[in-house]
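May I ask you for just one protein sequence along with its backbone structure tokens in two labelled lines?

_____
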Amino acid sequence: MYINTERLTIRTFQESDWKDLFAYTKDAHVMHFIPEEPLSEDQAKEFVNKHSSKDASYVAVVLNRTGTLIGHLSFAPCFGDFTYEIGWIFNPSYYNQGFATEAALSLVTHAFKYMNVHRIIATCQPENPASYHVMEKIGMRREGHFKKCIPHQNDWWDEYYYAILREEFLLTN
């Protein structure tokens, strides 16, 4: 998969991406809202190797002007063949510059226009406004607030559930 925007390329992982991936996935703060723990170097290498094939469930987000991997998107079928779940994680050096929104919007656009996707969902914790703001900026609507549904360490997290339908997206984009 290759999607180009003005500032970014969304593509399949390449073997050399592991160092850039490790740079942000080793950070406990970055991984706080992700089910996995921070990654070791070996786990970063394994992740990149696993997703450098045609498995597009995770794709790299690369900054065009430098060729640096600055984050990645998850995108996988959910509830059947026509609904997908999208997610994102970025290097904090690139926060607050619109990169997550630009990457997510380009993937959503691609999915609705070329992949026959009917519905895209996304979830996050209410304590993660940066993530739900991306969802809202790309046109998703909050459909639910699930109370204490995610076990996390010795606590339970709430979860917001967002979605957008193909017909809604194509009307406004």
Remarks:
- The mean pLDDT is 95.
- Residues 78 and 84 are 5 Å apart (CA to CA).
